[in-house]
Amino acid sequence: MLSCGQPELPDRVTIVVEESKRREKHIDDLEHELAGVVGVQLAEEMAQWRASGGGGEWVKFVSRTDDLPSAQPFLQTIALTFAAHLSGQSDSTGRYTLLLASSPLLNILIFNCRYGFRGQDKHVKAIGEELKRQIETLKGGGKGVRWNGKFVGVWLAEREGKMASSLLSQPLDDSASACSASTT
Q: What pTM did the predictor assign?
């Protein structure tokens, strides 16, 4: 497989290992760049929605199909880039909730910021707990304005995807009802 004789084998293995490490680093860099682009696109989509008269809480459910062993860092980079892009805008006072999902091994990240409202962590926890209630094999938890979860099974956009999307469009508790929900 290495197209060499036995004396050259250690050198060839070293070359193959180094090439593999370079490829993995390159893929990691590209994934980070892609997550940044997705985060900026979401922030611009929200800004455009607000500029066209959208009020209340902007909610968004984004589901991707990725074959990453752990998509959690990818989803976190999207959320962090989204928030960083908003903080650079002059009007960052809007309220939003993002539910990011990656399948087939489902990773869920709920990211929320509700400037000027107390209980934003309760809102995120309520969404996460309701998802866990409706999807039996979903495990997860969170702290503050983030909730992370993993799902075992087959995530179907027509079933779990629609349920997650509709869940975002309705108030779940007293703190969530302080905002009017808007779906995008």
A: 0.70
